[in-house]
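Let us work through a complete example step by step.
Step 1: write down the sequence.
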Amino acid sequence: MPAAVNTISLQDENIPIVLVELGYFWTAFGGFHGDKDADQGSKVIARAAVEGDNKDLFLNIADDEGKHAEFGW
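Step 2: predict the structure and record it as tokens.
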């Protein structure tokens, strides 16, 4: 994961960095425990990749409920 300082320098060069929170979904890696399947967990990745403007997501996290939590810096 890029450090905050590196992320800010990438913003100056118009290189977007988007953090995505998938949530906890059931796979073999997690012992098949979780609240959703892998298809549901991957939807947030697709949404963050294609919806809206990446500049709106800068220094934010896209989660699986469509919320964006702003970092404190």
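Step 3: interpret the result. The longest strand covers residues 60-62.
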